[in-house]
Amino acid sequence: MLKADIDADIFRETIDVISALVPECRLHVGESGIRTRAVDTANVAMVSIELSADAFNSFVATEAELGIDIAKMKNILGMMGKGDVLKMELPDEGHKLELAFGGYKYSVTLLDVNTIRKDPNPPTINLPGKAVLSGASLNNAVKAAAVISDKIALGIDPDAGIFYMEAEGDTDHIRLDLGGDDLISLEAAQARSLFSLDYLKDMGKVMSRAEKVEVHLGIDHPVKFSFAIAEGNGQVEYLLAPRIEAD
Amino acid sequence: MDFIVFSQLCERLEGISGRLEMIDVVSRAIPPLSEEELPIFVRFLMGKIFPDWSPLKVGIGPNLLFEAVAYVAGKKKGEVIDEINRIGDAGIALEHLLSSKEQTSFFSKSLDLVEVFRDFEYLARIEGTRTQREKLKVIRKLFADAQPIEGRYIARLLLGELRIGMGEGNMRDAIARAYQVEAALVEHAHQLTNDLGEVALLAKNGPDALRTVFIEPFRPVKMMLAQQGTIEDMMKNGGEVAAEFKYDGSRFQFHKKGDESRIYSRKLEEVTNALPDIVQHLSQATDHDVIFDGEVLAVRDGRTLPFQYVLRRFRRKHDIDAHVEQIEMIPMVFDLLYLDGRTLLDEPLLVRRELLETTLRAHVAPQVRSGDPQSIESFYRNALDKGHEGIMLKALDSLYTPGVRGRQWVKIKPAVDTMDLAVIGAEWGEGRRARVFGSFLLACQDEGELLPVGKVATGFSDEMLAEIYALLKDSVIAHSGKEVTFEPGTVFEVGYAELQQSPNYRSGFALRFPRFVRLRDDKSVDEIETLEQVKERYKKRITPA
After folding, report:
1. Hey, how many other C-beta atoms are within 10 angstroms of the C-beta on B518?
2. Which of B246, B256, B267, B394 is catalytic?
3. Is the ipTM of this complex over 0.85?
4. B154 and B94 in contact (C-beta within 8 Å)?
């Protein structure tokens, strides 16, 4: 059972976080809020998101697992205006999620959860380096790199005390060093890994709205981005597997 | 079955040239398979992903495939295409490229036959705004998890060119041998179900299961085919034959159950939306659940238009409404395969015809029955005068044998030297035609292998070249200078002045003065001229009549 009211923008942001990686997911609903963890079809990127009951204007729920067509949800939420309030309701044993906002009433058929991949277990990884910066500057760097290449190296140079991004095109090269005031904070440890911009472009767009994003890095290891949504009442983690160049 | 085991079997079969040995190897691999694996295994080995009657298509062109491999291997797409050109075989080139991979993933596991199929099925079902991207991710995952040799066969399956020589005949015999049932029973069940994968499951349950197969609406069966023949041969045994006009239209199969109707093309693709008028004509003229076999004619201002017009409608997916008015489509129904739950394939033509005439109130193609060669001859003259291609002669006791080109149905038409050949490559045109393909490399087939017989560059209008370019531009699998190679799929009917022996083409023959006659997009590459037929034509040429 679920009965909740939420600010349209907050819910839209939540769906955007998920839709950057997967077209459908299992959404877990419980007393304390909603959460999901999903891996993209290619097993290269993962998203984990928690939205606490405090993010909602009102929230009552019992434990349930909902199969959500994220792509369809995104289209529906596109209809909502700024400042709208979204009312959600799912009766016990219900298969249709009722969505109401601004005069519209949608009845959205849920997906059979058994047709959706189970929530993946997060890999155990140790990422020693951490840079904290604004989502906007992270997204700008990704966009800059995407102009000349389809992959980007993210790294930390502890001696120089900088977090850097570097991309190599066929003929061009781009590098951005961020240190001191450019960063909110830095835990300096030697780190450098290469990533596909194909994924980072979608993630970057979502992260650009975050005031601060923690970037956890290692050497030829996945990158983990963590940031808050819903005015601190929600927490997101993105994980992206690295590309490892053959010598 | 692990996919690596399947891949190794494919590789082994590729190295076997003898038919019997091939059947033997496959028949041994069949019995240990589970019920879930069996139909997939059978289809995959024949290079098919879904049954022939199924509307599902993975919809992966070479471009998307090369892009996925480039991503996984950390190469540029151009580098992938260069490697394919260098090696000359997409499967093997991709196998090489996949020996080193750049993208890592969180979960990877060895591939399993059934899971690979499920991924293909998912590819076929993906729809919506991010279709291409999601498809790309599925293929990337497959290639990321694939060992290089598995990559070779995944790529070939997706491109629809497995070409390990395992055709329907060989598979039928392998199934029969694996389960110790008669090949004829397997063949019969195959004609009805149109899916050897399902037939294999039936065979596993024994001969009785194979005997109790029925056809059902919305599952198209292959069309019965006719051989070229003469009135004299067909009538030499005396007795009556049935004669019908041979229409210059397009073959179709109409299925109706209750209020629902669907139409399938000769290639068994559903074309219901392209032919709303035919659906209307036929569903109004019968109250029964039926499967009809017939031909669609295009008529404008009371005149029958050439075949090309019908095909254009078949191909068209959008804008049907605008086209419905310009050209009228008329169905001519000449056979009834199914009536209210009853399969009629094993009834003689005479019985099927009588049932057809009582089942369908209009649009039944005229038929004459006669034992007199003279009157058949004049029916033939009459047909040609009316602008038809010729006539069909059918034995009155003939059963409906789907997909079989037997002697029971014979087509009589004026001799023309044309062949249906696969288009396997092209060269860019020059001058006015610099932005389209100008000449095309053509091939006949020999047990599934495509063998070039010549190039055609004449007989095209500029409009036709543009149409062909649009049709073929996404099938390019390799470039080299001015030449491109296609994923085979398109069939041309080509005329020629003479057939010569030639060391220049792998078939050993070359067409002299070839000219393009028309696009046969009702035909698939399996149905093109065989090397055997080419040899036959050559023999007839040099033996004085």
Report:
1. 18
2. B246
3. yes
4. no
